[in-house]
Write a structure and sequence with these properties.
Blueprint lengths: L6 E5 L4 H12 L3 E6 L2 H14 L3 E6 L5 H15 L4 E4 L14 H29 L2 E6 L12 H21 L4 E8 L5 H14 L3 H9 L11 H13 L8 E5 L7
Helix pairs in contact: 1-2, 1-8, 3-4, 4-5, 6-7
Bound molecules: nicotinamide-adenine-dinucleotide (NAD).
Nicotinamide-adenine-dinucleotide binds next to helix 1 and helix 6.
Length: about 260
């Protein structure tokens, strides 16, 4: 199972987990598309990865909630590289507030980036995957696709929603050789999580150390953060697995925080 020459679009690929997945895929010989909000950040990431090889990377400016930009970006990839084999819908944000204070516009923004983003990018890629008779769609879920935490009403709702969407895509895509799966990581130290530590300390009225040791890692088997490399390895499995035997699934990679 390898990704040699496979065309893999990774949204939010300029930072954190998305960049780590891109790195893993390029190391396996893939042609990776870094699709992110800012072209300069995406280009920097793509240049770094192409320099490492043996695969290569290109940058595409893409706000995943802008339908025209998503469609144009995917068309550009197909024009240059001939198709799309793998989509990793990974772009995401976090916004934390107690329910009663959650601003409605921030609720809508978070749901749009996670759910509209997954919908629009998948919709744009599927015709190309169907035409080729093969493809892998991977959504970045979370332990919060399975569990709930205080302050995260929008995030938990969005991440649970991705499970349903992946199951529908796996049923519709099966006859075309297209699989859909969800990765559910525990806490990974990326800019998204670094930002949450002081915010949660403020909202919960506890020290930052307690946010890390109790709130984030308290239910793991060994009080460890999941790493970007751990998540990238699971992404590689879903991307390279060759048949419909592995579809409609969600895999939790969280140091045992959630067990199923
Ligand atoms: P990050 O902030 O490091 O990276 C997120 C990337 O998404 C950034 O490059 C950002 O520019 C991009 N992005 C944001 N909005 C976008 C938009 N509208 N269109 C295109 N790109 C956009 O965060 P991360 O921790 O690497 O998170 C990546 C994914 O992993 C998210 O879906 C997140 O919910 C999920 N996740 C993270 C953790 C964690 O602990 N870090 C755990 C579970 C799941």
């Amino acid at each position: 199972m390898n990704l040699k020459n496979k065309v893999c679009i990774i949204t939010g690929g300029a930072s954190g987990i998305g960049y780590g997945i891109a790195k893993r895929f390029v190391a396996d010989g893939a042609r990776v598309v870094i699709a992110d909000l800012k072209l300069d950040a995406a280009q920097k990431a793509a240049d770094e990865l192409s320099a490492k090889g043996p695969g290569k990377a290109m940058a595409v400016e893409m706000n995943v909630i802008d339908e025209a930009q998503v469609n144009t970006g995917v068309e550009k990839v197909v024009k240059e590289w001939g198709g799309v084999d793998v989509l990793v819908s990974n772009a995401g944000i976090q916004i934390v507030h107690p329910m009663q204070d959650f601003p409605f516009n921030q609720w809508k923004k978070l749901l749009a980036i996670h759910l509209d983003g997954a919908f629009l990018t998948t919709k744009a890629c599927l015709p190309h995957m169907y035409k080729a008779g093969t493809g892998s769609v991977i959504f970045m879920g979370s332990v919060h696709s399975k569990e709930a935490s205080p302050l995260k009403s929008a995030y938990v709702t969005a991440k649970h929603g991705l499970l349903g969407l992946a199951r529908v895509i796996s049923k519709e895509g099966a006859e075309h050789g297209v699989r859909a799966n969800v990765i559910c990581p525990g806490f990974v130290k990326t800019p998204l999580v670094e930002k949450q530590i002081p915010e949660q300390a403020h909202d919960l009225g506890i020290p930052e150390e307690e946010v890390v040791n109790r709130v984030m890692l308290g239910n793991t088997v060994d009080q460890k953060f999941t790493t970007i490399e751990d998540v990238a390895e699971v992404a590689h499995l879903f991307a390279a697995f060759p048949t419909n035997a592995l579809t409609g699934q969600s895999l939790v990679v969280s140091h045992g925080w959630y067990m199923n």
